[in-house]
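Field: sequence (string)
Field: structure_tokens (string)

Example rows 1 and 2, in order.
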Amino acid sequence: MPSVKDLRERLKSLKNTQQITKAMKQVAAAKIRRAETARKQARPYADTLSEMLRDLIAGSSSVDHPFMKPGKEGAPAGLVLMTADKGLAGAFNSNLIRAAELYRREHADTLFYAVGTKARNAVRRMGQSDRPNWALSAQAKTDTAREVAQQVTDDFVAGSIGSITLVSAKLVSMMAQRAETRKLVPVEPAELSGEDQKEPGLKAAVEFAPSAEFVLSCLLPKYLEFTLFSAMLETDAAFFAAQLLAMNNATDNAGKLIDELTIVMNNARQAAITKELLEIVAGAEALS
């Protein structure tokens, strides 16, 4: 049985750990509010862009853009794996990496583009240490999204990859986050249907200058760029939600362990006192 001194040191260590997890819980709660606000502010633009692209594709006779054409035959698939930069969020990063591994099993010649430190480390473990990578927690996410979009676009147009797929997190609720796999390029009209798609009905006539095809060709690169930017905001919010839940559970578990160890330490201390009293009584009887 551990001594009272050992139990006291374990209790001190647990209390320090509980203070750390409680502080991280409060930080995650503050950050998730900002991340959720940024995600909601970007949603109207994403919905409008998707609706405009649907209308343009429906009203265009032909669009001469690489995103609307199949990729090079026989080229490997391109996969953008997006995770957090840090851990301590339960199985958040593991679920995203597992989804990427499942996609790789179906497409053995997959080439990765890592967004997030955990994604970069996972891609290196898969044997692709020379692949491009970016940090998720960059100050200007728009610049990062633009760089990622430019890199995958150049590789797709050059024929280095035959498609562009994204694996990122989706925030279902504060208690649930899931990995989502979406094919971004080649663009299919069905993939542009938003969650809040309006009911079909009469729409106002819109004229595009110089032509709908020209406007669509300009919007498709922006669609890819903003899709990646929205995914970064979504992954950020989902990560902080997962971290908040994990730190809350860790704080509660530390509290339970502290209560249990306190009882064990009190029992051990009482046993030590009882033993000393018995020794004193036995020594007194021996002297008498």
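Row 2 begins here:
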Amino acid sequence: MLKLRFTENKLEAGCDEAGRGCLAGPVFAAAVILPETFVNNQLNDSKQINEKDRYLLRKIIENEAIAWAVGIVDNKEIDRINILNASFLAMHRAIDKLNQVPELLLIDGNRFKSYKSIDHICIIKGDGKYASIAAASILAKTYRDDYMRELSLKFPQYQWERNKAYPTIAHRAAIQEFGICQYHRKSFKLFDPLSLDF
């Protein structure tokens, strides 16, 4: 069972991102404020939950959260400011869109750029410890997956509907065969011949 609160008397928003290690597409982040009454035994880090359950949980989170929002930073911005800063910016954009202002941000990971005057706490593997961060991980992951499925209709050669633009052998092989498209992150190492087994 994940912890619901880091503090007892502050309005907390959990924040997490998805797509940081991908070779193409945006990085997505979400911010979620859960009510004190929220209970869900299935909720966990999105990587620990199968796809069907992630989408079921997304509906529950969106229906029951006090506030939630998703922020996006595209591949061109990622190339310009680097992926770490892009991850922070995506979280900032998600927090910007919340319809309530949190008093404390719970950030998955070990680093963050302060958002305005709101206090934050970085929690390593926080998406497996705190419900609000886990909820953010579910939203970020599912919304990014939806986006990559849409892109895969335009660029079926990369199999993004399967790999979501992560550096799989199939994705790298497609880059070698077809080259890159406008959604690839040019600042990333897009082709690694050692990863291909021909």
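free_text_note (row 2): The two ends are 45 Å apart (CA to CA).
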